[in-house]
Amino acid sequence: MRYAALLRGINVNSGTAIAMPDLRAVVERLGHSEVRTHLRSGNVVFTSADERPERVASLIERGIAEDLGRTVSVIVRTAAELRRVVEDNPLEVPDPTRFAVLFLSGPPDRATLEGIDPAAYAPEEMRIGARELYLYFPEGMRRTRLDPLLAKRLSGTWTTRNWNTVTRLLALAEG
């Protein structure tokens, strides 16, 4: 099975640095094959005989802790799940650098998210997916109003990728 693992919060600053060759080595040591990283932000695509994404994520987290001495949250999606994320996108993507998918470790709490007043983050947009949020930041992702609102209300593990990265990971996972 082909997977994409998304690591949360690495290579944001020198204190969160993980070299991509080191990450590939961890994933390979765990028995996965055809391991490729994309960018320096903790995206790794690989093939695994294990058909349990949650277990794969847990093993990668443990492997990073053991081999690299770092505690990192990992979200894993199959190639088919990434395909669904792209195909189910409910928003237009006029600029992929200002559009993102927030990947969640589990289903979102719809009542909590629907309770956020859209006027509080306008002109930004948010739509709720199965285990992701689709986000559009027409003024850019650096000074967003939506991120702080979500950070206060989200539970579990989550990480964000821009649309270009999402579609590139899909291409790598299906390739």
From TrEMBL:
Matches recorded under SUPFAM superfamilies: SP0830-like
Gene3D superfamilies hit by this protein: SP0830-like domains (3.30.70.1280)
InterPro entries in the cross-refs: DUF1697
Pfam family, one: DUF1697
Species annotation: Microtetraspora fusca
Protein name, as recorded: DUF1697 domain-containing protein
Top-level division of the source organism's lineage: Bacteria
